[in-house]
Structure formats: structure tokens, C-alpha cells
Specification:
mainly alpha; elongated; 0% strand; disordered C terminus; 235 residues; single chain
């Protein structure tokens, strides 16, 4: 079984388990709402509020992680409603330790499986796109080829970011020169975010542009750029 199918089967299993745990917890909370004299027409909303908040809070944690933002509040919300769901499930269970443990397992499983699904989503996004044979190539100057006009065409990067579209190098360089002209200090992560490429590729080009005598902040940069095309490789 390939890695892609392993991921799909694992993700499908986690979703099935999360749905089963949600159903069991939903039934217990729904019955508890009816026993607490919540109107039958509205009693179904009670488990949605409790267990639904857990799922939404954990998904918010994942969104905050992608946005590199602190997620203290979503984590606190997920923990608070998880404890509430476990307590309410136990309150609905018969007054026997084994029965209370049975009812407590459903909300616990819901929290754990939802968190596991979040981790799988993160793993899926971190799977490298290039084949192993391409990714194994050592980093270094990009290859150059003779051109009839004496100039060399811009080459799409093959390592470390083969997924970068054509023109990515030009976009990174434009972002670099714009930040230098504005008096800012370019970073690999910032250039990658603006140009839509991987952070490693942005850092590699930043190092190359910094060492390039024709860069924007060099005193002779304008003369160098007028005498040589911007996309010449192997300098």
C-alpha cells in the first residue's frame, strides 16, 4: 500500500471513529437535556452546542497554526467544553462505575480522534512534492545552458522547490528589491510568503541575491543590471 493510500485509509478511519464517538455522546447529552426539561423541539441543540464547540475549537487551533498565530483561547475553549461533555455524559450514566466509564469514553474519543485528524491534515500538507530522486540532488548553483543569443533563459528551479511555478524566481527577486528599496531587511520567509514559494526556496534565493553584486542595494547595482540580464545564471 502506497503512502497516499495509507493516509487516505487512516484519515477515513479517524473520521468514522470521530462520527461514532459524536453520535454516542450526542445521544447521552440529548437524553440529559430531555431529563432536564429542555423542550423536545430544542433538546437536539444541547449536544450540538457542547460537542460542536469542541470540534470547532480544535479546527480553530489548526487554522491558527497555519496562520502562525497564538491559539491559547481555542485550546482553552476546547478543554473547557471537553470536560463539560465528559461530566454531562457521566451524569447521564447509571450510578455504577463501569457504566460511568462507558459513557465517559465517547466524549474523550471525540476529542482525541478530532485532534488526530488535525495532525493528519498537518502531516498531509508537509508531504514534499518533488520525487525522491529530485529531492536528493545537492543544493548548489542552478545549471546553465548555452543560448544562441548569448543570454541564458530563466530556468524553473528543480531543487529544493520543484513545485514553484514559472516566474517564481522573478517574483522573489522583485519582492527582494522592493523591500531593499523601502529600507527593510528581507528575510527568506517573508520573500517566500510574498512570492508564493516554499520558505526554503526563498531563503536560498535570498542568499543568492545577497551575494549578487547586482543586487538593489549595491552602489553599482544599476550599472550591473543594465549591462547584464537579471536572469543570467552561474555568475
Amino acid at each position: 500500500m502506497t503512502g497516499r493510500w495509507t493516509y487516505r485509509v487512516s484519515a477515513a478511519g479517524v473520521i468514522v471513529l470521530a462520527a461514532a464517538a459524536f453520535t454516542l455522546s450526542y445521544d447521552a447529552l440529548h437524553q440529559l437535556a430531555l431529563d432536564s426539561r429542555v423542550r423536545p423541539a430544542l433538546a437536539w441543540l444541547w449536544p450540538v452546542v457542547i460537542d460542536g464547540t469542541i470540534v470547532v475549537a480544535l479546527l480553530t487551533v489548526l487554522a491558527a497554526k497555519r496562520a502562525t498565530t497564538r491559539a491559547a483561547y481555542p485550546w482553552a475553549l476546547a478543554g473547557l467544553f471537553s470536560l463539560a461533555s465528559v461530566a454531562f455524559n457521566i451524569a447521564h450514566a447509571p450510578d455504577r462505575p463501569v457504566a460511568q466509564l462507558v459513557f465517559a469514553m465517547a466524549p474523550v474519543a471525540l476529542v482525541l480522534t478530532t485532534h488526530l485528524l488535525m495532525q493528519q491534515v498537518g502531516w498531509r500538507r508537509s508531504i514534499p512534492g518533488p520525487p525522491a530522486s529530485v529531492a536528493a540532488q545537492p543544493d548548489g548553483p542552478e545549471p546553465t545552458y548555452p543560448h544562441p543569443s548569448g543570454n541564458q533563459p530563466e530556468l524553473q528551479p528543480t531543487s529544493p522547490d520543484r513545485r514553484a511555478p514559472m516566474g517564481a524566481r522573478a517574483r522573489v527577486r522583485a519582492a527582494y528589491e522592493a523591500q531593499v528599496a523601502a529600507g527593510q531587511t528581507p528575510t527568506g520567509a517573508g520573500l517566500a510568503r510574498v512570492a508564493g514559494v516554499s520558505e526554503r526556496y526563498g531563503q536560498r534565493l535570498l542568499a543568492e541575491f545577497t551575494a549578487d553584486p547586482a543586487r538593489a542595494d549595491h552602489p553599482n547595482g544599476d550599472d550591473q543590471r543594465r549591462s547584464q540580464p537579471d536572469h543570467v545564471e552561474g555568475r
